[in-house]
Every structure is written in C-alpha cells, then in structure tokens.
Design brief:
- The structure holds 2 protein chains of 2 kinds.
- Chain A has 3 domains: 76 residues, no CATH class; 95 residues, T-fold, CATH 1.10.3980; 116 residues, ApbE-like domains (T-fold).
- Chain A starts with 5 loop residues before the first strand and ends with a helix.
- In chain A, helix 1 packs antiparallel against helix 5 and helix 6 packs antiparallel against helix 7.
- By secondary structure, chain A is an alpha+beta fold.
- The longest helix of chain A is centred in the N-terminal third of the chain and has 22 residues.
- Chain B is of the alpha+beta class.
- Chain B folds into 2 domains: 84 residues, no CATH class; 82 residues, Sufe protein. Chain: A, CATH 3.90.1010.20.
- Chain B has a 3-stranded antiparallel beta sheet.
- In chain B, a hairpin with a 2-residue loop joins strand 1 and strand 2.
- The longest helix of chain B has 20 residues.
- The chains are: A alpha+beta, B alpha+beta.
- At the A-B interface, strand 1, helix 1, helix 2, helix 3 and helix 5 of A face helix 1, helix 3, helix 4 and helix 8 of B.
Chain lengths: 305, 209
Amino acid sequence: MTPIRHYEQSRLLMGTLVSIEVVGPGSETKRRDAAACAFETIGFVEAACSRFDESSALRTLCRHPGEWLQVPDVLFEAIRVALEMSELTHGVFDPTVGAALVRHGFTRHYLTGEETGGAQTPEGASYRDIALDEATRSVYLAKPLLLDLGAVAKGLAIDLAAAALEGWEGFAINAGGDVYVHGIDRTGQAWQVSIQDPASKEGVIASVQGGNMAVCTSGSYERRSPLNPAVHHLLRASTSQPVTDLVSCTVIGPLAMLADVVSTAAYLLGTERALEFVDDAELAALCVDEALAVTMNESMRGYLH
Amino acid sequence: MAKISTRLMSLCAAAVTTVYAAGYIVTMPSAQANTSSMPDLGGTTPSQSTPGAAAKAFASHPPSTSTHPVAQHPRHPHPKSNTGSTGNSGTKTAAASASSGAKKPATTSRGTAAKTTAKTAQYKDGVYTGVGSNPYGSLALSVAIRGGKIASVTINQYSMHYSQSVIDPQLPQEAVSMQTWRIYIVSGATASTYNFAEALYQALQKAKA
C-alpha cells in the first residue's frame, strides 16, 4: 500500500529531541510549513518557561522575589497548573524543585553543556511561597526560589503545537517521550504509540492505539544526575530526594499538559498511590516498579493494542 | 472522585486556549518572519520554508538583560518578541530593572530594536576553532568571522559511524544563514548535530568581541 503523503522533521528543543510528523494531502511545502509552525510554537514556550536560559521569563521572574511581576500568559498558565498539582498532592509535586535539581547537578544547557547558573538559589522554599493574581496575570515569589516547570511546560508546548496542526488528517508530536497523536498515521491507521521498556533502550513494554491522545511517561531511566548516578531528574521538593519505588509511570489523556503533569505527580507519589491518583484524575496509567513489574489501571487496558 | 479530574482538565484546557487564543502563532507567516528578521543574510538566501527561518522571528528583539552568553545570542528566542501576545509588558518592565548588571554586549543591543546592530557587533573578525564530542564520535570545525558575522563554517575533522555528508554542507550552511550555533537537527544524525552545535558554540565564544 502506498503511504499517505507525510512529512517528518526533528529538532532539538526543550532539552530533548522533538519530532513532528504531518500526514495529509497537499503539497510538500504545505506540510513542511505546518511542521515549522508547530516547532515555532514549542520554541515559544521554551523561550518563556526554560529553567536553563537566563533570558527566559521564568528566570526573570526568579530574579525578582518579593515583587509582583506580570508574566507572559504561557508562563502564568504553566505555573497555575503546577500549583494546582502541588495542592492536590500536598507538595509531593512541587515546581520549586529547581534549586534541588541544581544541587544535584542538573545545570547544564543541553546543546552546549554550558553551566547555566542559578546554583546560588537557596533551598527551603515550597509551592506555598508562590502567589498568583489572575486579574493582572502577575506572580509573586515570597522567597528566593528557582522554578522548574519541566513537568508542565513541555506538555503545554505539545498541546499548542497540536492546536497549530489542527485540520490535518493526522499528525504526531514526540518530545522526548511525551507524545501527542491525532487522526491517522501514514498508513491510514490509528496511531500506535509504544511505551519503552525502562530496562532496555530497544524493548517495548506495551503498545497503545488511539486517534487523539497524549501519552506521557515520567521515569527515572533517562536522565541521571552527573554528580550522583543514583539521583535522577524527578525529585520531591519536600525531601530533595528522588523517589525510588517506581521506575516509570505512563499516563494517557486528552491533553499532553494534563497527561504530563499527572504522570509526574503519580511517579513521585510512588507505587502505593500512583494508580489511585491517576484513577481520581480519570486518566489511564501504566506503572513499572523497581522489580520491573508492570501494573495498570482499568482504563489503560482499553488502549492496549 | 471526579473533582480532581474536572479541575485539572479545565485548568489545562484553559491554559492551552488562553495561550493559543493570543494568536501569536498564526499571525506569523514565514514570509513575514523572513523579511523582518533576516535583513542581512550576506548572500545566502534560504527558502522561506527553511526550518530556522520562521523560528527566527522570535528573535526580533534581542534579549538585553543578561550576562549569560547564551542570552546574548541574536537569534535567541525571547517572549518579548512575541507579537500579539498579551501580558508582555510586565516582563519588559522586569527586564529593564534587571539590566543593571548586564555586561557590555548586552548593553549594545538594548534600546535599539534593531537586532542587526547587536548581530554585527557580536564577533571579532578572524578564524576560530571548536571541538565537540560525545560517546558516539567527535567533530572539529573552524568558523570564519568577517564583518562581525559568521561568514563560513568548515568541518575539519569528523568521526561518526555514518557519513559526514549527512550533516555537511547542511549544518555549516544553516549556521551561516541563521548566524547561530542553534542549528536544527538532521534526522538520523542527532549525535553529530550535537557535536556540531557544541563545537560551533565553543568557536563563537572565542570570537566574542
């Protein structure tokens, strides 16, 4: 069967490899421009929300504790969702984890390997030190702190890129393991997304199928601390120690932002509470624990291919 | 407990809608991006659909507040350049008050919206070298600066399990046309793209005026 016309491109963005595939009729240029437009959207979110970039709106905000600062919508919304998740998990999820990440050596820009600073930020702040003012779109940081919006900004970027690609028969956005698929793939079938086996680079632990869904995985197996190999990039802000009883948690949802933040929170909550939490959020989840045992909730079974 | 799901879903949906409704993305056709942000290509004329061309529109105002080397890069994306988004004014205010500690190169670009000024003033003329390596291989290059701009990039040494032709001449050309080390990835050549970016960044650091 001849594949449906498609275009695929990858770029380095948001500290990861982002691939976009556009499927549908029309000229190659049209597909390519659509992908370029979607990449732009992701670059826009990164420019505002990056912890690694001193000129980002996020870093600007963090340089001004003790003042109300009006911020771009994209940053305001990302912080708002992060704070909501902090409340829901009583601080197990906490966007002020940035300082602890820096202490563990997650400080280098992904392209240049260059130190990005921020090491002087004191720890001890929590999400309770962040206040939002909806009317003026302003943020107040009560203490010096370093935000890390990794768990929400990437999802938001994917959702915005998806919005930019609306109207195409099919597309897939893959940002370092966080995936959004829509419509059909190049063979005319519903997209299939494979969930990587945490134990091996090549292995696949499960395969899910759907027409419009975000599949996001939070796990400890991709990024290790350069200072301590036992420390990965998902930390509990309250203890500054990584949780260790889950290896990964994959969540499927209608929006990448939702799936991403819920998978991160569930991962941090650990084996005992992860699936229950995702059930409360009415999403599908698949968890892999330290013994590489796979557990999932009922709604995940519906997606398995 | 449906409360969690409803609350989270509505917040996330609101986030996407609010940001998307600002319309920053649809109002930026690549043609516009080209004319507004690449007035000084020095002979290289990439097609409008060159990946970096559209993205470059984000740099129509150079960041001006930081002592960070990355921040001084002319193509560096910054929320301020977002045409049509609301809520930028606060960032601008913050930027202004944050600039007291900024080093010279940043000062040069501040106040004039013309990023061309910043761009031409950024590098010293000459030839500079840089190397990049990762577990998959290494790469060495030299960059020639003429008139303060990246005039050419030459890959001098290349080791990788796939051919140099996968990234050469694409990446050197893109570096010249975009005037940046922030090049886009070549599919299937992730490792050498990283190496190229690292090497070029290193060389450009040496060329900093």
